Amino acid sequence: MTVGKAWLSAALCLFGLAGSLSPALAENKAPAVSDWTAIEKAAEGQTVQWNAWGGAENINAYIDWVGERMEALYGVSVNHVRLSDTAEAVSRVLAEKAAGRTANGSVDLIWINGENFVAMKERGLLETPGWATLLPNWKYVDVKGKPTVVTDFTVPTDGLESPWGMAKLTFWHDTARTEAGQLPHSAKEIADWLKDNPGRFTYPAPPDFIGSTFLKQLLVETAPEKIDLSQPATDENFAAATKTMFAMLDEMRPNLWRGGQRHPENYPAMKALLADGEIDILFAFNPGEASSGIAAGELPETVRPLPFPAGTLGNSHFVTVPFNAANREGALLLANFLISPEAQIRKENAELWGDPTVLDVASLPEDDRKAFESLPRGPATPSPEQTGPVIVEPHASWQDRLEAEWEKRYVVGG
Amino acid sequence: MRIAPLLALAVIGLPVTAGLAGTVLPAFGFLPALGRETFSLEPFRELFAAPALGDSVRLSLVTGLAAALISLGLAGAFTAAATGTPAFERMRRLLAPLLAVPHAAAAFAFAFLIAPSGLILRLLSPWATGFERPPNVLVIGDPAGLSLIAGLVLKETPFLILLILAALPQMPTTRSRQLAASLGYGRMAGFVFLQWQPLYRQIRLGVLAVIAFSSSVIDVALILGPNLPAPLSVRLAQWMVDPDLSLRFMASAGAVLQLFVTMAAILCWIGLEWLGAVLLAGLRDRGLRFARDAIARAMAVGLPLATALLLILGILALFLWCCAGFWPFPDALPGNWTLRSWRSAWPRLDGPLATTMIAAIASTAIGMILVVLRLATRPSGRPPAALSRGVMWLPLLLPQVGFLFGLQLLAIRTGTDGTYGALILSHLIFVIPYLMIALQDGWAALDPRYERVATALGASPLRTFFAIRLPLMTNALLAAFAIGFAVSVGQYLTTVLIGAGRLPTLTTEAVALAAGDNRRIIAVYALLQTMPPLILFAIAAILPTLLWRNRRAMAA
Predict the structure, then answer these.
(1) Which of B130, B102, B62 is nearest to B526 (CA)?
(2) Which residues pair with A50 in a beta bridge?
(3) Mean pLDDT rounded to a whole number for chain B
(4) Domains A34-166+317-379 and A170-315+387-410 fall in the same CATH topology
(5) Above 70 in pLDDT, residue B383?
(6) Burial group, residue B21, by CB count within 10 angstroms (0-12, 13-18, 19+)
(7) Which CATH architecture describes the domain A170-315+387-410?
(8) How far apart, in whole angstroms, are the C-alpha atoms of residue B123 and residue A96?
(9) Residue A317 β-bridge partners
(10) pLDDT tens, residue by residue, A65-84
């Protein structure tokens, strides 16, 4: 064997070794979630690409504040990639997986819930299960009092996503223009009321999440009792469950705002319509929405909640980390900061955002508890009694089918 | 120096060709990255099963044709009525800055004006209309796409008038006018009979570009167009970002369909051209003089002027909304004023503003160098070959989705998506053709004797170029820079796809906000999007007067 050949074989061995070792090395380099000091160290200097719906100004401003705090606390920058539909981020991660990009992905953190979460979970697009429950601030999360923080649209989260806020579908009206007594108090009363008040109601076009939520609210109010909506939707039970619902939507359609020919894109668009008196009813997932709208000068001061005594849908929204996040540690740090008392207190402030906390306020240190209790609730934020009981979300599979059926029926031009 | 003139062509031709291939192959089921290595017609079967696809196609087709027809009608009638009058020169000064208003901002301005709760009805209510609440009528996003067409006409009319203005000096306008007048023809009829056809031949590619753009536009359609269903291009872009990856095949098939739709629109247009020529010949041969055309002339001047004023009024509405406190219908003005919208938007503006400026300055600067290289090294006196002219116009004549989908896949494969390099390169594809349009006529029009004298005095070609050609071209270069800059600022789909969401610009942010319908924040973004190009146009207009204080002929 010549020297040259020896070198060659040695080099080949090395390359071969390096080749087989590199995945293991890569895994070793990424600190485990349980080793929080290592996470903090690795995160420094990272820029987290946070993909989050960007359609509401108050939420965007809150995310900016989070970025400032992350910079100050950990030296982590945050870039808010504004989405008009969370599916865009899911699609991006999927595309990267398909193209073989298993590391260095372009999405670090996603604001997510429901069918988008289920899609990512089923396709194995997320960080190792259990990461969320290993976050240091997890201890404050109200798992017992708010069961939806660990079940997302009836699907167990398995620690694959970390809760960020609570949502409860809430309806409002402008007391200067309408009297609550003459307005509907459930989704199924709307069709009848619209006959005498044509043009005074609309809902965002599904798959906007509030639009889809309105369909689900109508579904849970009208589906026959014998059908269990917490079970996955099938061809048989779907037709039976939605018969009344679609009959009502058909009936509603000609009386909707703009004759149902156009729908607002999302709930913030409905705020402008209510302010101008184009529609009479506004709804959103955040009970503090109208109060923060009043504070921002977008809604008249006379807006008040419209009670739905039989209850409305409620759920939680989350953040999650894709399996190939380039700035995984920064993203974990950010997820942890989002469930810190500091971040949650600011989020629940109705003058800023008004999104209810996922934390167990009673378990917090005294100062934080007092801060929560002294938060401004805002003039249009309903008490729990006013919105009625929380109705749990149907299984995530219902939403996809509802959206598809809705599109089939109504996305047909004149 | 031999390859220098080809550089500009390569920067356009290569990505467009690669992008087309990257779009067409997945349309037939071929995309190894997603594990599909066989060809099939499945994507097209899925595409044709999409609900209301026919309506989307019809919308795209009609929008493209109608926007071009109306814009060309307005621009042509205006030229016929106003050439040789002072109104013509005034219009030029009014239009150039309007060209700088990005499409998305113009669409917002228009929407703020004509919506049922818009400024026009606020000014008229309740005293004239009796409305206490906005009327429940579908104006923005009407299913026929009328407001979309109107919004496009608002932007395309100035574009065509400026193209005409560039072409006119090469035509014997004054002599033709005198000849027609001496035979008793009205001003407009004289122009149409004698000069329209040669003029039209010169601006024809521009008109076809208007059809291609209007039949495949996304940002304006998102703001003003119908959404149940949306025009074809909008639905394609939505499929492209759907979590269901298999939809990408359908989206690519849709992009191929879009190519055909645009082609069909252009074919229809060629039919219309023929029809128009026959009509024109018929009218001309009857010897009709149309001598009393005062009313028609007033309308021909008034209508484009009205569209310009509409745009200006719309921008005024943006100014009102950006600083409005609570402002309910039907109040004509906000009840109180606040800078809250600016304060809340400002912290998030630095990134997009910087990206917008970097992409615009870099792509325009590089584009200028490439275009000037091409013009300077091209043998003078010979018109460009048909092929290179075709390549130059390619990005404007193809629907953007037709090659940007494939280009995005290419960027992802090479890991360059979301980088400034790729973003600037993709903007260049659109900036270069506009720079070429803006520069080539002025370049060719320069009296060759200046350079000949310099050469005769012994100056090297390089010295002649820097000492004679460039200074003499300063005004044209400045104006071209402003146009290229505005084109880059206005890029929507390019930035969304190639920037991969990580390089947001003022335009992508503004269009993303359209969904939220927060009029105050939209106004802030639309205004900010308009300002940099407008300022540049102002500089391009003012700088020559300052630079050439002591050279009166240059300052004009």
Answers:
(1) B102
(2) A80, A109
(3) 88
(4) yes
(5) no
(6) middle
(7) 3-Layer(aba) Sandwich (3.40)
(8) 52
(9) A165
(10) 999 999 999 999 999 988 87
CA distance A186 to chain B (A): 24
Radius of gyration of chain A (CA): 24
b/e map B505-517, b = 16+ CB within 10 Å: bbbbbbbbbbbbb
The phi, psi pair for A319, rounded to 5°, reads -125, 150
Which of 194-213 (B) contact A at CB < 8 A? none
How confident is the model over A108-121, as pLDDT tens digits?
999 999 889 999 99
Q: Do B143 and A94 touch (CB under 8 A)?
A: no
Mutation for testing the A interface, residue in B219, B348, B492, B496 having most A CBs under 10 Å: B348
pLDDT in tens, B76-108: 999 998 888 887 878 877 887 888 899 999 999
Q: Given phi > 0 = left and psi -120 to 50 = alpha, else beta, which region is A130?
A: left
Low-confidence ranges of chain A (pLDDT < 70): 1-29, 412-414
Question: What residue ranges define each of the domains in chain B, with the CATH number in brackets?
Answer: 1-31+340-556 (1.10.3720.10), 51-338 (1.10.3720.10)
Share of chain B above pLDDT 90, in %: 44
Burial label, B536 (beta-carbon count in 10 A; 0-12, 13-18, 19+): buried
Q: Is the ipTM of this complex over 0.90?
A: no
- Domain A34-166+317-379 indexed as CATH 3.40.50.300: no
First to last CA, chain B: 34
Sequential DSSP letters for B122-148:
HHHTTTTT--SS------TT-TT-HHH
Cβ distance B343 to A58 under 8 Å?
no
Handedness of CA B332, B333, B336, B341 (dihedral sign): positive
Contact residues, chain B, for A296 at CB < 8 Å: 340
Residue A109: strand pairing partners: A50
Strand-by-strand arrangement of the A303-305 sheet: A282-284, A170-174, A303-305
What residues in A contact B345, CB-CB < 8 Å?
57
| Residues 20-79 (B) with a CB less than 8 A from some CB of A | 33-35, 51-52, 55-56, 59
Q: Which residues contact B203 (CB under 8 A, 6 or more apart)?
A: B160, B163, B164, B167
Q: Do A276 and B117 touch (CB under 8 A)?
A: yes
pTM above 0.90, yes or no: no
Burial of A189 (0-12, 13-18, 19+ CB in 10 A): middle
Residue B447 has pLDDT above 90, yes or no: no
* Residue in chain A nearest B138 by alpha carbon: A258
**Residue type at B208?**
L
pLDDT single digits (tens) B199-242:
999 899 999 999 999 999 999 999 999 887 899 999 998 888 66
- Cα B349 to the center of its chain, rounded Å: 25
Residue to substitute from B410, B518, B522, interface A, most A β-carbons within 10 A: B518
Q: Which of B245, B324, B501 sits opposite A81 (nearest CB)?
A: B501
Domain map (residue ranges) of chain A: 34-166+317-379, 170-315+387-410
Model pLDDT, residue A12:
39
